[in-house]
Amino acid sequence: MAILVVCACKAVYSEKKRVCPKCGKAKKDRGTRYQVVIREGGRGTRKHTRFANTMAEAKQVELQIRTQLDRNINPKAVRKGITLGEIFQRYITLAKDPTADEHKKTWPKDEQRWRDYLAPAFANRRADAISRADVSTFLKALEGKLSRVGKPLAPATRRHVLHLMQRLYNWAYDEKIYRGFNPSKKVTVKVKNAIGRALTPEQAKHLLATLQGYGGDTKPLVERMCALGLLFALLTGRRLGEICSLRRDKVDMEFEEAEFFDEKNDCFLTVPLGREALDLINQANEIGLKDAEIVFHREKGASIYSAMQYRWRKLRDSVGLAGFRIHDFRHTFATWVKRKVGLLASMGLTGHTTVTNAKIYEHTEDDVLRRGIAAVAERAGLRNGEKDDKPTS
């Protein structure tokens, strides 16, 4: 069943017949139309029906429907306007497929953002019926929405949701299943990241002494592991998630390096480790479970991610570092490394892929700025080598 004849008397018959079996009129008589009926499979499967005024037009419609079905496109959805939910379902199917170009290791996050935020507002909306005002109103409403842990959504989360929506429209356009306007194209979400801080050498010495006592031999395993993890953060500049997910089999003691998974860039990064950092790993292996997969773990081998955050918030006030985040150890590491080897070389250790991002993590201390000012005065012959009257560290 493909092309049928619709007679003026409303009878429908095969195009192979020359005349209408009901009224006897020829196919070419005035009022005759053609009906294109294509089934997706055998009898009982979904069928797609269109009408045409001429046989040539009917054949063209038949070819169009068959081509769409071959490309796994629903002709009815294209005709009535595909919904954003249908676009997402086809996109996520490929994102989960390791052999597809669209494959992403982080597809569970896309699925979660779609389910929690985008789906309730746009799943059943036609893609061409969503306006830029709709997107802006949706993002504004997200500001008052609470996360799964009961906290207001961070600006970065709203930006991730917007980027997913933009990706869906762009992918649908590339796949030629949607040719309309992209309402999310010029919409942005501004994210103001917390300003990072870097430790001074004096603060670092005080902190090291405190952590050594905090992780004493008589303390519970989780506290000892947290102390080692915090020291490791300072000595390596790795993110909290990278430290807490570091696997034992990813540490190479012979070549003095370790492989961390960089979630931001969706790749593994191998970086060299100093002997002090390797000593921390050895200590963790000695006091930890023998069959644990990760280096820094709690009593049953689970991650210490939450435990480190909780204990650091309680500890930082006692060492005079109120408001100092674990992530600021990364700022400290980047600042000190850049001071020694330069910005571009430091990027190889921090994993930053752009100079702009790397500069965010560099904090010039006051004593360095004062030495620069003094150098200008000396060069001009105004100081004659005399030192600045303010002490420097």
Which key terms come to mind for this protein?
single chain; 393 residues; alpha+beta; hpI Integrase, Chain A; 3 domains; three-stranded antiparallel sheet
Short description:
With 393 residues, this protein is of the alpha+beta class.
Notes on the protein architecture:
Helix 4 packs across helix 6, helix 7 runs antiparallel to helix 8 and helix 8 runs antiparallel to helix 10. The C terminus is likely disordered. It is elongated and about 110 Å long. It folds into three domains: 78 residues, no CATH class; 91 residues; 125 residues, Orthogonal Bundle (hpI Integrase, Chain A), CATH 1.10.443. The longest helix is centred in the middle third of the chain and has 20 residues. A four-stranded antiparallel beta sheet has the order 2-1-3-4, covered by helices on one side. It has a three-stranded antiparallel beta sheet with strand order 5-6-7, with no helix packed on it. The chain is an alpha+beta fold. Helix content is 46%, strand content 9%. It has 15 helices and seven strands. The protein starts with a strand and ends in a 14-residue tail after the last helix. Strand 1 and strand 2 form a beta hairpin.
